[in-house]
Amino acid sequence: MAKVFQAKEDIRKSQDEIDRLQPLLETARSIAEDAEKVMKSAQESYLTVKKSCEDQYTEIERLKIPCEQLRKETNQDFEQLSPLFQAALEALNMLRKADIVEMKSYPAPPEGVKLVAILLCVLFDVPESYKEAILLLRSDNFIQQLQFLDKDNISDSAYRKLCKFVNDPETQPTVVASKSRAAEQLCLWLRGIHSYCTIYRQLQPKKQSLKEAELKIAKAESKLCEMKLRTSDLRDLLEKEIVNYKGKMKIVKGLEKKQQDFRYDSKTKYEDEE
């Protein structure tokens, strides 16, 4: 009889524990459900940004294809410029000091010689006169100034005068050659500079297109870097929420196991009582 009474008492205590644990379990489940929602939200945000990151990478690769082709074409086109400038330099190499002295000695230079001299003044941005040109010719580093002329940045005004120069019958190399050997070589140099500038200017739209394409890619890559950082932050947050959710579920499982253990004890004692 005592055993029966004790068994009933134990069953009552087990049920009390089960009842006591029930609100704790419900609270734990509610907390776990909230943690699961936060985790799933973090997962959704992470996957969305990760997909955007992948799409951005694909877009950059797509942009690179025409950009690389444009870069290749631009480089090939600009390779045309080297022979043109080299031809201009070769004309300078043919200049002799004696020829330059002869050109400086004219009291009244022939028209072709004068036009060559005036155009030199234009390119070096000095007053357009034969007197000023002679001052240039007298410079100790005159040839070096010609060799290192900033040919990529010749003004529109100077270029127009170059164009007029090469089309002038008085400044054709054969005509100038009959007046002065120095003027002839300078004339050939000026025509080489004109050819270089003409091709260089024709290539500027393509060069600008390449610059814009490269800038677009650079901006896209910068955006991708920001997206990668955002993806990394969201991945860290997701991992944190997963750990948090697992921790909450561990509490739920622990409480469920305790209830289950008490139910098992009650059942065992009830069977022993019978």
TrEMBL record:
<dbReference type="InterPro" id="IPR024743">
    <property type="entry name" value="Dynein_HC_stalk"/>
</dbReference>
<dbReference type="GO" id="GO:0007018">
    <property type="term" value="P:microtubule-based movement"/>
</dbReference>
<dbReference type="Pfam" id="PF12777">
    <property type="entry name" value="MT"/>
</dbReference>
<protein>
    <recommendedName>
        <fullName>Dynein heavy chain coiled coil stalk domain-containing protein</fullName>
    </recommendedName>
</protein>
<feature type="domain" description="Dynein heavy chain coiled coil stalk">
    <location>
        <begin position="54"/>
        <end position="241"/>
    </location>
</feature>
<dbReference type="InterPro" id="IPR026983">
    <property type="entry name" value="DHC"/>
</dbReference>
<dbReference type="GO" id="GO:0045505">
    <property type="term" value="F:dynein intermediate chain binding"/>
</dbReference>
<dbReference type="GO" id="GO:0030286">
    <property type="term" value="C:dynein complex"/>
</dbReference>
<dbReference type="GO" id="GO:0051959">
    <property type="term" value="F:dynein light intermediate chain binding"/>
</dbReference>
